[in-house]
Design goal:
Blueprint: H1 6-22, E1 43-48, E2 51-56, E3 59-64, H2 75-84, E4 91-96, E5 99-102, E6 107-110, H3 129-135, E7 145-147, H4 153-156, E8 172-176, H5 177-183, H6 186-190, H7 195-207, E9 215-218, E10 223-225, E11 228-232, E12 241-247, E13 250-256, H8 262-265, H9 279-296, E14 299-302, E15 310-316, E16 319-324
Parallel strand pairs: 6-7, 7-8, 8-9, 13-14
Antiparallel strand pairs: 1-2, 2-5, 3-4, 5-6, 10-11, 11-12, 12-13, 14-15, 15-16
């Protein structure tokens, strides 16, 4: 029986390195292959009954953790959670993943990502939805419906190209009625409590200017597209919506932003992220939604989950844990 230990492995590595330096070891022909410097396309297909669904990666943004990224606890605790999740020290990484649902009769894009305009500071780290749709063989002109979960910029700004033209020119745009009522209100904008919220109001006005005739407002608890039902999950925004996608006896829950990054806010559902409009309501929504998902053993898709953003939620005392689904090489 062979007994390998750390000392053996280190000794072996040292011997190999020495042989390479001295030229005494086995030799092979060397070839200079240029490094590609680019990442593979980010799309992942999964089935829900007869529906073919595709997780489309819009990228991920890594930034220094703001002092109040987690509002209701000391920054040191949040930083420790980030390090425990192997995020770069002092930083936080937020992924973005719209979902494409092909029902057979409709091609539905749920959320659109950050968009391609004004992205120079991120050096292409986000705004990848269109290029990944193309890589997945999808022409944006064939999108029938753009279904928005709420009106934050990372979910809406992808509806326009850099020149302001529509990215999905033939699509109906559906928005949650309660979110539209809130964010389109000049009176509410005047009461915005901070610069971030003021920017959200301004972004809605800019992004949707001139699109009123293409917009349909939807209510909660309704089938908003074939097999896709809207679920009330308010708190993150007043009209924040999740979706149940069902075909035959299969169903997935698309949770949108019930939680921001799960390593923080699914694992610790009572933590309040800076982006939540009503932190206490968002906290209650997280518990309600994840209790349901755990009880049903439902597949859950998260906009801010690590790509390909598919997994299951389990209860862990008063907390929850995310169990990512294994990558399936077949559909």
């Amino acid at each position: 029986m062979t007994d390998l230990n750390r000392r053996d492995l280190l000794a072996g590595a040292t011997a190999i390195g020495a042989a390479a330096v001295t030229g005494l070891g086995p030799t092979t022909a060397s070839a200079s292959v240029p490094q590609s410097g680019t990442q593979a396309p980010g799309f992942y297909r999964y089935k829900v009954g007869s529906y073919e669904c595709t997780s489309i990666n819009d990228g991920a943004r890594t930034f220094p953790m703001p002092d109040k990224f987690v509002v209701n606890l000391p920054k040191e605790e949040a930083l420790a959670a980030g390090e425990a999740a192997y995020m770069p020290k002092g930083m936080v990484t937020v992924p973005f993943n719209p979902q494409l649902i092909n029902t057979g009769s409709k091609l539905v894009l749920i959320d659109t990502g950050n968009g391609v305009a004004n992205l120079e500071p991120s050096k292409g780290a986000v705004g990848r939805t269109l290029q990944n749709l193309q890589a997945a063989g999808v022409d944006p002109k064939n999108i029938d419906l753009v279904l928005l979960s709420h009106l934050h910029p990372d979910h809406t700004n992808g509806i326009r190209l850099a020149d302001g033209a529509l990215a999905f020119p033939n699509a109906e745009i559906m928005v949650p009625a309660k979110d539209w009522e809130f964010w389109a209100s000049d009176e509410n904008a005047a009461k915005a409590p901070n610069d971030m919220t003021k920017n959200y109001f301004a972004n809605v006005k800019k992004t949707f200017a001139g699109l009123e005739s293409k917009i349909t407002k939807y209510e909660w608890g309704k089938e908003v597209a074939p097999g896709i039902t809207s679920i009330a999950t308010p708190g993150h925004t007043p009209g924040h919506t999740s979706f149940a996608v069902a075909s035959g006896d299969k169903k997935v829950l698309i949770q949108s932003d019930v939680t921001n990054i799960p390593e923080f806010f699914l694992r610790n559902p009572d933590w309040h992220v800076a982006f939540d409009n009503d932190a206490a309501l968002a906290q209650a929504t997280r518990h309600k939604f994840y209790d349901m998902a755990a009880a049903e053993k439902a597949t859950v898709i998260g906009f801010h989950f690590t790509f390909p953003s598919v997994g299951h939620v389990e209860k862990d005392g008063a907390k929850y844990r995310l169990i990512p689904s294994a990558w399936n090489p077949t559909i």
